[in-house]
Please model this.
Amino acid sequence: MDIAGYLASIFIGVALGLIGGGGSILTVPVLVYLFSIDAGLATAYSLFIVGTTSVVGSFSYFKKGLVNIKTAVVFGIPSIISVFLTRAYIVPAIPQEIFSIGNFTVTKSILLMLLFAVLMIFASYSMIKKDKPVTEETPQKQKFNYPLILVEGTVVGILTGLVGAGGGFLIIPALVLLSKLPMKEAVGTSLVIIAAKSLIGFFGESGDTIIDWIFLSKVIAFAIVGIFIGMALSKRINGAKLKPAFGWFVLVMGIYIIIKETLLS
Model:
């Protein structure tokens, strides 16, 4: 199973390098089901893996000038604050056993995995739906809808803190709609935001959490190898055409997690 886990880690990186995101949504299921790590710890590990791989993935966008620093700061601040507070206070406060229905007990691990599965299903929709035909993007004067950015950034930060996923499928549309960024610039900027909030959220982790740094380094190394494979493949394969297929895979995984955690546990 460990070998399968490391191969899946490469696939996470390939998805990021090939389609510009989405791979991080698989990190927690890989850690929980292939490496047999507790869901709570898996969400912490995922933050570090997602943050580190996003840093690597954002380099090519930086070089092409496709990262808007001002937007990253404006959107990132509420997101970073909320993810830090979520990891430091909300996650540790969730009881190990939440409630019972008959013989079925909803534990902290089950709750986190169910939340994650719902997030996967929402993420899969954003990948499967057909994007509008790309027209010539005319530069727009950037305007910030601060109240909505504050709300969106806070919600994304709380979700990231709870389930350990980057939330690019929420951030990218928000940057396009609320900050008037072109799509490619929104993708590059979102990677920077994801990197910052994920890593800061990880380091806001409760001091009781014991981190296996050797294991974490191995997973990250395989994921980074996958990123470079994905970037090389992206020169030959149109990642946009593969995105719906990956979305269907994420949808099936989300449904599987719900069934496994409720009916098969």
Summary: DSSP finds ten helices and two strands in the chain. Residues 2-262 form one domain. The first strand starts at residue 97 and ends at 101. The mean pLDDT is 84.
